[in-house]
Amino acid sequence: MSKWIAACQTDDIEPEDVIPFQHEGVDYAIYRSPDDDIYATAGHCTHERMLLCDGLVMDNTIECPKHNGRFDYTTGRAAGAPVLVDLQTYPVRVEDGTVFIEIG
């Protein structure tokens, strides 16, 4: 069963940045795009499970800090070797400055 979880405040994320969020032992990554939209994905790279919150955000792309694998964080699409498996993405909503992600 899915549920909406409060992950952070919009002020916690700078534009073109990523922050970590953990809920019940699961890591997530929360992004703020250059257009000020908020996105959420799984927190680990699908290649070698590195935390994406330590990666580099450029436009709508997150680059893994270990092997420079890239994903489009708006869709989860893997952008080529060494990452070949897409990231899980999660629905996001913002209410009164609080970012909620739908998990489950």
TrEMBL record:
Keyword list, A-Z: 2Fe-2S, Iron, Iron-sulfur, Metal-binding
Taxonomy, superkingdom: Bacteria
Pfam families the record matches: Rieske
Domain Rieske stretches: 5-101
TM region positions: none
SUPFAM superfamilies the record matches: ISP domain
Name of this protein: MocE family 2Fe-2S type ferredoxin
